[in-house]
Design brief:
Order of helices and strands: EEEEEHHH
Largest sheet: 5 strands, mixed
Number of strands: 5
Shape: flat
Helix content: 25-40%
Number of domains: 2
């Protein structure tokens, strides 16, 4: 049975390090990279549902203060950052990791030469 979706909602978690201070009670426009880590279908008890997307902040963050750009980097584990980096190249993460593991010796040798 198809469920009627009333609202599609995003919830964003994570934190980022930024280089400048922000002003309290000031509005900013954000540009973020995020990974959708979960979805939840929540009943509204009226026959409709809300579809909630849970996003985790990854990669770079841009804060626009009326044309002035403030940049930051998301805090997170190396594996989260690596997943984001692989995604930026349009690669399927699971397929890419399979290739990495299959060629781990050559990759380790290459990286050690850097």
């Amino acid at each position: 049975m198809d469920k009627k979706i009333n609202e599609k909602i995003i919830k964003i978690t994570g934190s980022a390090n930024i280089q400048e201070q922000l002003k309290q009670d000031h509005d900013y426009i954000l540009g973020i990279s995020a990974n959708c880590v979960d979805t939840l279908l929540k009943s509204n008890q009226d026959g409709t549902h809300n579809l909630i997307y849970k996003l985790r902040l990854l990669g770079e963050v841009t804060i626009d203060d009326k044309g002035k750009k403030i940049r930051g980097k998301a805090k997170g584990s190396f594996s989260q950052k690596w997943r984001w980096a692989v995604d930026q190249y349009g690669e399927d993460y699971d397929l890419f990791m399979g290739k990495m593991l299959a060629n781990r010796d050559q990759i380790i040798e290459f990286v050690n030469k850097l």
